[in-house]
Design brief:
With 204 residues, this protein is mainly α. The protein folds into two domains: 90 residues, no CATH class; 99 residues, no CATH class. It is built from ten helices and no strands. It starts with a helix and ends with a helix. The C terminus is likely disordered. It comes from Limosilactobacillus fermentum 3872. One of its GO terms (molecular function) is sequence-specific DNA binding.
Amino acid sequence: MRTSSLNRWIKQFLTAGLAGLIRPEHNHRYTLQTKRSAVKAYLSGTLSGQAILNRYQISSLSQLHQWIVRYNSGQLSVAYATRKRARKVGRKVTFEEKRQITQWTIDHEYNYQAAAEKFNVSYQRVYSWVRKYQRTHDLESLQDNRGRHKGKTPTNEVERLRQEVRQLKAKAKEREVQIAFAKKLVEIHNREVERPDDIKRFRK
């Protein structure tokens, strides 16, 4: 028997009693609140990875890491958004609100769920506005045009240059967010390396 396995069983017993030593006969289903609480505890650094596994009875660090990636991309609580969509989808949203919501989502590392909750709209609508903006790099494209034309064509040189400037700024902002997200992933990876007890002893 590996020492790491024995240590894990001891911690599971101290945390959850005999129930913590019983292997489930089927895949354990975690509540949304459990997932979010575990991720926030890890990102805040208040608990070690193994302590989080014990407290929330999570099967492995890899499971926790999957939730972290989904949390940072705003996709951890899609199911929750789906349940709320029926109530939120009917709300009318002005063009200025679309601009604000889209920009807020981009500024917050594409956290669609947080935007949906903050502005009381559905996850899918936020996602569609951001995707539309990403295709055009122009917030004006969010206007509710009933026709199928692709947008307003610049009528003179000044307008064309202004449109190009907007597109360049949008691309630069998107790149900035991508870099920030990449740095966050590196930070999480480095934090794992700094926790040898979690990685070397309990990943086996």
